[in-house]
Design a protein that fits this description.
By secondary structure, the chain is mostly beta strands. The chain is 3% helix and 61% strand.
Length: 767
């Protein structure tokens, strides 16, 4: 489409439609009991495209529509999508009666457009706002408990990761916050900057999604929504939480509708002493969003997200035969006193949506992201006889990144035949600077007393500070992507392709050597689904897909024999083939898939000495099965269950000519992961109970024989009581106080302990 034609379409769209007959569609949205539903989303597709929300009495009204054939949909939280289609030539009344839905019917993260999750050819899962609120969710493992095959861990009280399908780097799964990527230039996402209590909803798409999002989506994409939901009237809430380990948290959110848009804001202030000694954690979080529709064809959104976290550095636990030694408990902290990590994030965005015609939407979004972090710490504790330093390091990182994306969407057709085309052009650029002092002559320690040094006993535990070295990293990425999703009756076909061109360079202040890297990468995505059974009350759909993902490696400058040389690792590439079934009934929603995924040229480290690493490429393969079930049972009872089997192994991992770890299971990768839970709602009371199981896992994959961490099972429960606008939630996690290792630590024979038993009470007021 030429620029002149696009301009003419935009100009014609802004002209009043006096020569056409205009119609109004209005009605009421009700639930299965006949009660009205406020805040339901009504989408109108046809000669014009509109979106509205039902008011406090369940009514909605869409005016000034040109006569013609329309498809109208309605959906609400906890209620199923309803779709009606007809010819409108005069003012019409259209009422919707929505069924209860065990799972969300609409998802946006898979293709950057709202679509029926039943016809998305990928394994997708949503977690609603009500689920998060009724359990007073405080951690990612609680928030994502209904998603199959996930592990959750935090290293040193700061670095949080979500592991899926054997992929455990924070750069393996793209994290989006309200549509904006949360990632550093190396692709990693600092999840510590997003407080779980700020979440308004979650969407998780499994499998490679680079054809839509580029790098950092090699294992999937998860989106966190933090802006309060829109509605027809002023609404908000205030909450205070008191929990174990000296935790106090205040939280609030507000939505203010305006004549042509809305204002929304949410914030969290949290203070905690931490379950380990000296690991206090303070966090402040704020998100603000403003929407204004200048006309039915032009909408502007401005948003800001700010987050600050200061956390004391946590310790690890030395292990033997997969279990803690020397009687070391989770409370013990052998780190250097006063060491901490301080992170600060500022993200500002602007998005313009232009409805060029009833079928064509053009949008442009721009984001500026500044991320500063002062890192102190790193602690090396391994079983004797080795004597090692505390591994202290320190660096200050400053990153500025810019992202501009122009997106064109074309949506046409009816309920039985639809075409959705999406194309985009992205410019992504930024700089990443890091200053790091050098430390020498640090004391060494040997268990069981990791506080009494055995060498350099009079020196500071950090060592002697030397000169600082500054690294400068620059990156520019230009991307184009296109995807077409065609649905015809029972058959759906999706095809997408993305090309990314990279130009990046790393230099250091102590050497004139430069490490440049330029490359291009194509990322295909093909999927399809077929409705094997389609009835009013039940649908059975088979789906399958093939997708590739990629992530460029950060070039490095290594010193070999006192000569500084650049080290360029090949980009990581994942290839995923998947097939499964999805069923939706009024009372049951379930999905299951088999997948075969390879990660080619993944970055791995091999410890060649107490403080030395060799970085190499490795290829791994994960085959598995994942399944999820949600059900609505009689008497106000609902249930969920999930199970995943992962067979994750290295296909090629040869760090040196003399060492070969091919065939080893991936570190921290269990074969079995499962979870289930029940919720019982009676009048104003909601009780939740859940169980999560993680199977045995090898601690390392870069040794001949690894320690094996035993499996663990966690029990959680909560009780929510509502009295008018006031809600009180009592919750408890890890009821049995299981002492387990949640994560490894830098290829050492040591691990990070999981969260002990935790109690909390939350008081929330809604208005």
């Amino acid at each position: 489409m030429s620029l002149l034609r696009m301009f003419l379409l935009a100009a014609l769209a802004l002209l009043p439609l006096h020569s056409q007959q205009l119609v109004t569609i209005e009605g009421t949205v009700r639930d299965p009991q006949g009660l009205t539903v406020a805040g339901a989303v009504i989408d109108v597709y046809g000669p014009a495209r509109r979106t509205a929300r039902s008011g406090p009495s369940g009514g909605y009204r869409v005016e000034a529509l040109p006569a013609g054939h329309y498809r109208v949909t309605a959906v609400s939280d906890g209620l199923a999508l309803r779709e009606l289609e007809r010819e409108f030539t005069a003012a019409s009344s259209l009422d919707f009666h929505l069924d209860l839905a065990p799972a969300a019917s609409i998802i946006e993260t898979a293709s950057k457009t709202r679509e029926d999750s039943l016809r998305v050819p990928f394994l997708v899962t949503s977690v609603s706002r009500s689920e998060l609120r009724d359990t007073a969710t405080a951690s990612f493992d609680e928030a994502l408990r209904a998603i199959a095959g996930l592990q959750h861990a935090t290293q040193g009280n700061f670095f949080t990761r979500v592991t899926t399908r054997g992929l455990r780097d924070t750069a393996d799964v793209l994290t989006l916050v309200d549509g904006v990527p949360l990632r550093q230039l190396n692709g990693s996402a600092d999840l510590a900057m997003i407080p779980v209590t700020a979440l308004q909803g979650v969407e998780f798409v499994k499998g490679s999604a680079s054809s839509m999002y580029g790098r950092s989506a090699i294992g999937g994409a998860m989106q966190f929504y933090t802006v309060p939901a829109a509605g027809p009237k002023l609404a908000g809430d205030l909450a205070f939480t008191r929990a174990s380990f000296g935790t106090n948290e205040g939280q609030g959110g507000i939505h203010i509708p305006t004549r042509r848009g809305r204002l929304a804001a949410a914030g969290v202030i949290s203070r905690s002493e931490g379950f380990q000694q000296g690991t206090g954690r303070d966090q402040n979080f704020l998100t603000v969003s403003a929407d204004h529709a200048f006309s039915p064809y032009l909408n502007l959104r401005l948003s800001y997200l700010g987050s600050g976290v200061r956390a004391g550095r946590g310790s690890i636990v030395p292990l033997a035969n997969g279990r803690p030694i020397f009687g070391i408990t989770r409370r013990d902290n052998f780190g250097i006193p006063g060491v901490y990590i301080d992170g600060e994030l500022h993200s500002a965005s602007a998005k313009v949506d232009s409805q060029l015609s009833s079928r064509v939407l053009l949008s442009n979004s721009f984001n500026f992201n500044r991320y500063n972090r002062l890192f102190q710490g790193g602690i090396t504790i391994v079983p004797p006889p080795a004597a090692v330093t505390k591994g202290y390091s320190e660096n200050f990182t400053r990153q500025d990144s810019y992202l501009n994306e122009t997106l064109l969407q074309w949506d046409a057709g009816s309920a039985s035949r639809r075409n959705t085309f999406t194309a985009g052009l992205t410019f992504d650029w930024g700089n990443f600077d890091q200053a790091s002092p050098v430390f020498a002559a640090a004391p060494t320690y040997r268990g069981p007393d990791y506080n009494r040094p055995v060498t350099n006993t009079g020196n500071d535990p950090r060592g002697t500070r030397g000169p600082s070295v500054t690294s400068y990293f620059r990156q520019n990425v230009v991307s184009f992507f296109a995807q077409h999703h065609f649905v015809w009756r029972r058959l759906g076909v999706l095809a997408g392709l993305r090309t990314d061109s990279f130009d990046q360079q790393l230099t250091r202040s102590d050497t004139p050597v430069r490490a440049p890297f330029s490359a291009s990468r194509f990322s295909p995505r093909i999927g399809g689904d077929f409705a094997l059974l389609r009835r009013e009350s039940v649908s059975l759909v088979g789906f399958g897909n093939f997708a590739e993902g990629f992530r460029p490696q950060l070039p490095g400058l290594n010193t070999l024999n006192n000569v500084v040389v650049p080290q360029l690792l090949r980009p990581e590439v994942t290839r995923n083939i998947e097939g499964g079934l999805r069923v939706r009934h009024r009372a049951v929603s379930a999905q299951a898939s088999f997948f075969n995924m390879r990660k080619i040229d993944g970055q791995r480290s091999f410890r060649s000495g107490p403080e030395d690493f060799i970085f190499v490429n490795a290829t791994s393969r994960v085959r598995g099965f994942e399944s999820e079930l949600r059900a609505l049972l009689p008497a106000g009872v609902s249930a969920y269950g999930n199970y995943a089997f992962h067979n994750a192994k290295h296909i090629e991992f040869r760090p040196t000519a003399a060492t070969n770890f091919s065939g080893n299971r991936l570190r921290m990768s269990p074969q079995h992961i499962a979870g289930s839970g029940l919720a019982w709602a009676w009048r104003r009371v909601v009780w939740n109970g859940g169980v999560a199981y993680v199977g045995a896992r090898p601690l390392r994959d870069n040794v001949v024989v690894s320690q094996v961490l035993p499996s663990y099972t966690l029990l959680n429960t909560s009780l929510s009581i509502r009295l008018g606008p006031v809600q009180t939630v009592f919750s408890a996690t890890n009821l049995t106080d299981r002492y387990y290792i949640a994560d490894d630590f830098s290829a050492q024979d040591a691990g990070n302990p999981g969260l002990p038993r935790r109690f909390s009470v939350q008081l929330r007021y809604r208005f």
